[in-house]
Amino acid sequence: MNEAGHRQPLRGIQDVADELGITTRAIRFYEDKGLLEPQRVGTMRVYSRREVARLRLILRGKGLGFTLRQIKEFLDLYTVDALHIEQTKNLLARVSERIEALETQRHALDQTLGELHDIVRQCRERIAEAG
Length: 131
Hints:
Layout: E1 11-12, H1 13-20, H2 24-32, E2 39-41, E3 44-47, H3 49-63, H4 68-80, H5 85-130
Antiparallel strand pairs: 1-3, 2-3
Helix pairs in contact: 3-4, 4-5
Protein backbone atom coordinates (compact mmCIF):
# COMPACT_ATOMS: atom_id res chain seq x y z
CA MET A 1 0.00 0.00 0.00
CA ASN A 2 1.13 3.57 -0.61
CA GLU A 3 0.89 6.57 1.74
CA ALA A 4 -2.74 7.24 0.81
CA GLY A 5 -3.66 3.66 1.72
CA HIS A 6 -4.14 2.52 -1.86
CA ARG A 7 -2.62 -0.67 -3.18
CA GLN A 8 0.25 -0.16 -5.57
CA PRO A 9 -0.53 -1.68 -8.94
CA LEU A 10 1.39 -4.82 -9.72
CA ARG A 11 2.62 -5.25 -13.25
CA GLY A 12 3.73 -8.22 -15.27
CA ILE A 13 7.25 -8.69 -16.56
CA GLN A 14 6.31 -8.10 -20.21
CA ASP A 15 4.57 -4.82 -19.36
CA VAL A 16 7.64 -3.58 -17.47
CA ALA A 17 9.99 -4.73 -20.23
CA ASP A 18 7.93 -2.96 -22.89
CA GLU A 19 7.79 0.26 -20.87
CA LEU A 20 11.54 0.33 -20.29
CA GLY A 21 12.54 -0.89 -23.74
CA ILE A 22 14.39 -3.97 -22.52
CA THR A 23 13.83 -7.69 -22.75
CA THR A 24 12.19 -9.90 -20.17
CA ARG A 25 15.44 -11.86 -20.22
CA ALA A 26 17.32 -8.76 -19.03
CA ILE A 27 14.88 -8.31 -16.18
CA ARG A 28 15.26 -11.95 -15.14
CA PHE A 29 19.06 -11.53 -15.33
CA TYR A 30 18.92 -8.60 -12.88
CA GLU A 31 16.66 -10.67 -10.65
CA ASP A 32 19.13 -13.58 -10.74
CA LYS A 33 21.91 -11.17 -9.72
CA GLY A 34 19.89 -10.14 -6.66
CA LEU A 35 19.15 -6.62 -7.88
CA LEU A 36 15.39 -7.13 -8.10
CA GLU A 37 13.00 -9.11 -5.94
CA PRO A 38 9.62 -9.17 -7.66
CA GLN A 39 6.63 -10.59 -5.90
CA ARG A 40 5.10 -13.80 -7.19
CA VAL A 41 1.50 -14.56 -7.91
CA GLY A 42 1.63 -18.27 -8.47
CA THR A 43 4.46 -18.71 -10.94
CA MET A 44 4.09 -15.21 -12.42
CA ARG A 45 6.51 -12.44 -11.53
CA VAL A 46 4.79 -9.18 -10.65
CA TYR A 47 6.53 -5.86 -10.19
CA SER A 48 5.54 -3.07 -7.84
CA ARG A 49 6.29 0.57 -8.45
CA ARG A 50 9.32 0.13 -6.15
CA GLU A 51 10.76 -2.68 -8.28
CA VAL A 52 10.21 -0.70 -11.49
CA ALA A 53 11.99 2.27 -9.89
CA ARG A 54 14.88 0.00 -8.89
CA LEU A 55 15.04 -1.31 -12.44
CA ARG A 56 15.20 2.26 -13.77
CA LEU A 57 18.12 2.93 -11.40
CA ILE A 58 19.86 -0.24 -12.59
CA LEU A 59 19.51 0.79 -16.21
CA ARG A 60 20.69 4.30 -15.47
CA GLY A 61 23.69 2.96 -13.58
CA LYS A 62 24.57 0.62 -16.45
CA GLY A 63 24.22 3.52 -18.88
CA LEU A 64 26.69 5.51 -16.80
CA GLY A 65 29.17 2.63 -16.86
CA PHE A 66 28.79 1.27 -13.34
CA THR A 67 29.22 -2.44 -12.72
CA LEU A 68 26.37 -4.59 -11.45
CA ARG A 69 28.28 -5.01 -8.19
CA GLN A 70 28.48 -1.23 -7.74
CA ILE A 71 24.80 -0.84 -8.60
CA LYS A 72 23.86 -3.56 -6.10
CA GLU A 73 25.88 -1.85 -3.34
CA PHE A 74 24.12 1.40 -4.10
CA LEU A 75 20.66 -0.18 -4.08
CA ASP A 76 21.41 -2.13 -0.88
CA LEU A 77 22.42 1.10 0.87
CA TYR A 78 19.16 2.69 -0.22
CA THR A 79 17.25 -0.05 1.56
CA VAL A 80 19.06 0.20 4.92
CA ASP A 81 19.79 3.95 5.09
CA ALA A 82 16.56 5.86 5.71
CA LEU A 83 18.24 9.27 5.29
CA HIS A 84 20.24 8.05 2.29
CA ILE A 85 23.45 9.63 3.64
CA GLU A 86 25.57 6.51 3.14
CA GLN A 87 23.99 6.02 -0.26
CA THR A 88 24.84 9.60 -1.20
CA LYS A 89 28.44 9.22 0.02
CA ASN A 90 28.76 5.97 -1.91
CA LEU A 91 27.29 7.59 -5.02
CA LEU A 92 29.67 10.52 -4.72
CA ALA A 93 32.69 8.21 -4.44
CA ARG A 94 31.59 6.00 -7.35
CA VAL A 95 30.72 8.93 -9.61
CA SER A 96 34.05 10.60 -8.82
CA GLU A 97 35.88 7.37 -9.71
CA ARG A 98 33.88 7.08 -12.94
CA ILE A 99 34.65 10.69 -13.90
CA GLU A 100 38.36 10.06 -13.33
CA ALA A 101 38.28 6.91 -15.45
CA LEU A 102 36.41 8.67 -18.25
CA GLU A 103 38.82 11.62 -18.14
CA THR A 104 41.72 9.17 -18.51
CA GLN A 105 39.96 7.46 -21.42
CA ARG A 106 39.25 10.83 -23.03
CA HIS A 107 42.91 11.81 -22.79
CA ALA A 108 43.96 8.52 -24.41
CA LEU A 109 41.29 8.93 -27.08
CA ASP A 110 42.39 12.50 -27.82
CA GLN A 111 45.98 11.33 -28.16
CA THR A 112 45.01 8.48 -30.50
CA LEU A 113 42.84 10.80 -32.60
CA GLY A 114 45.72 13.25 -32.86
CA GLU A 115 48.02 10.50 -34.11
CA LEU A 116 45.44 9.28 -36.63
CA HIS A 117 44.84 12.81 -37.94
CA ASP A 118 48.61 13.16 -38.35
CA ILE A 119 48.72 9.93 -40.38
CA VAL A 120 45.85 11.17 -42.57
CA ARG A 121 47.72 14.44 -43.14
CA GLN A 122 50.93 12.62 -44.04
CA CYS A 123 49.10 10.30 -46.45
CA ARG A 124 47.40 13.23 -48.18
CA GLU A 125 50.71 15.06 -48.50
CA ARG A 126 52.37 11.97 -50.01
CA ILE A 127 49.50 11.52 -52.49
CA ALA A 128 49.64 15.20 -53.45
CA GLU A 129 53.41 15.08 -53.96
CA ALA A 130 53.11 12.02 -56.18
CA GLY A 131 50.58 13.93 -58.30
